[in-house]
Amino acid sequence: MHRGIYCLVFESAPCTKSVGALGLIEFQGGFHVYIGSALGPGGLARVARHIRCAKGGIRKPRWHIDYILDSDTFTLESVSCIQTEDRLECRLASLMPGRPVPGFGCSDCDCPSHLFSFPAHPQVHIDRAASILGLSAHSKTIKT
């Protein structure tokens, strides 16, 4: 079972979206990268759940990211998986130069955010951050 960090890259138009306890959030148009942990028992299989949810909807949102996955405004463009047994998702998030969406995806840590907005596709930033941590990101384009 592979474990590690995953980065979901979305594209969207500018919008306002209700995100659970965070309330209404204004999202910039462009690209957004969400950084998540896949160190639990299912490992990187969690990514497959996110892809399924982006293609078919979610019955009941469980995590902040579910509100994005279930939105017609956001399109899942690509996924990057970074294999590691170490809890490095917060360090990876701290290396993202994009505009943070305050409080998103970080209710279980002290990070300001795990979702960042970019004007262009952020793959170069994901690759650079992984490299700084001595890791490599394996990316795949998603057709939703």
What does this molecule look like?
- There is one protein chain.
- This protein is of the alpha+beta class.
- The chain is built from four helices and eight strands, in the order ββββααβαββαβ.
- It has helices at 45-56, 64-69, 89-94, 123-132, and strands at 4-12, 15-19, 23-27, 30-38, 74-83, 99-100, 115-118, 138-141.
- It has a six-stranded antiparallel β-sheet with strand order 6-7-4-1-5-8, sandwiched between helices. Strands 2-3 form a two-stranded antiparallel sheet.
- The longest helix is centred in the middle third of the chain and has 12 residues, at 45-56.
- The chain is globular and about 35 Å long.
Backbone shape: globular
CA gyration radius, whole angstroms: 14 Å
Number of helices: 4
Q: Give the ordered list of helices and strands.
A: EEEEHHEHEEHE
**Strand arrangement in the largest pleated sheet:** 6-7-4-1-5-8
**What is the mean predicted local confidence, pLDDT?**
90
Number of domains: 1
Amino- and carboxy-terminal Cα gap:
26 Å
How is the biggest beta sheet arranged? 6 strands, antiparallel
DSSP, total strands:
8
Oligomer: single chain
Helix content: 10-25%
Structural class: alpha+beta
Which segments are poorly predicted (pLDDT under 50) over 5 or more consecutive residues? none
Task: Provide the β-strand percentage band.
Answer: 25-35%
